Amino acid sequence: MSRKTIIAGNWKMNKTPKEAEALLGEVLPKAAGAACEVVVCTPYVDLPTACRVAAGSKVKVGAQNVHFEASGAFTGEISTGMLNELGVAYVIIGHSERREYFAETDETVSKKIGAALAAGILPILCVGESLEQREQNVTSEHIRTQIKVALRNVSAADMPKVVIAYEPIWAIGTGKTATSAQAQEVCQMVRETVKECFDAAVADSVSILYGGSMNAKNAAELLAQPDIDGGLIGGASLKAEDFGKIIAAAG
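User: That's the sequence. What structure does it adopt?
Assistant: Structure tokens below.
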């Protein structure tokens, strides 16, 4: 079994280009000796700066969204070709905030994953349940559906390029965090779902990240779980010291 450990920062709608340059200047030394893959997913306007500053370093740059069409009358959207020209390596697809606030659906998520893979950009597919869904005991059914629809047009050969991030929506920005056992249980279910869609070898090749308020204090315990291969980090990725500690915890 060989799969990447990935620590990816999701800056969300934070940092101007000047602020991004300053933050990356602090992050790069902390990532220099990292054994894991380190990614920073910045706002669109920060991508040129991030790609320039991170060039030649251990840090890869990711976008937070992308459109599934190559071009056209889609005001406000960004294409894979635009990201490619900048040197963007990853893209977050289907984040819960995109689904909740901007009408992302499992269908559009599937199309975006296909577009990213076709362009050679590595998609970080986000799946997760709300507090209401968890309390109704439909976490498994909900996430399994998200995965199956998202991956329905992905080939087995392309699956090792797909990263899946489990983000319990109830633990994002709330201060609540799933226990390591809860996180492991769902991440294991995610891997089992990939196995159902493909096979055991493909499932073992996919990096699964935990995206529910991983921080400098709980990172080591979460990363020790057998089916958690890294983290999609929100608030802590905006603090170089904390992000560095999470990178160190990943080995």
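The chain has a mean pLDDT of 94.
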